[in-house]
Amino acid sequence: MVDVDALHMARALAHAERGRGRTAPNPMVGAVVVTRDGVVVGTGHTAPAGGPHAEVRALAAAGDHARGGTLY
Q1: Per-residue pLDDT tens over the stretch 28-55
Q2: Which of the two ends of the chain, N or C, has the fewest CB atoms closer than 10 A to its terminal CB?
Q3: Contacts of residue 44, Cβ cutoff 8 Å, sequence gap at least 6
Q4: Other C-beta atoms within 10 Å of 24: how many?
Q5: Mean of per-residue pLDDT scores for the chain
Q6: pLDDT value at position 5?
């Protein structure tokens, strides 16, 4: 059986890596928004200091599709 939560968390961690070395003083963070049906509708990583955080970027990318979904 596939652990879907672990897969989505791994994807979020991979997105976090995109900010390596550029997010200080914020931590590296990645985020993935998934619908109830398991469809990834938004992703993001923390931007350089002063920019939006991963969660904000992922939710913006997902738009209305985020409603009722899960944020990893």
Answers
A1: 999 999 999 999 999 999 999 889 999 9
A2: N
A3: 15, 30, 31, 52, 54, 55, 56, 57, 58, 59, 60, 61
A4: 10
A5: 95
A6: 95
Annotation marks residue 55 as catalytic? yes
Compute how many other C-beta atoms are within 10 angstroms of the C-beta atom of residue 62: 23
This prediction's pTM: 0.91
The tokens of 27 are what?
Answer: 């931590």
Q: State the catalytic residue, choosing from 12, 32, 55, 57.
A: 55
C-alpha distance from residue 63 to each of 2, 13, 51 (Å): 28, 21, 19
Q: Which residue has the tokens 């009722």?
A: 68
**DSSP one-letter string for 2-45:** --HHHHHHHHHHHHHHTTTTTSTTSPP-EEEEE-TTS-EEEEEE
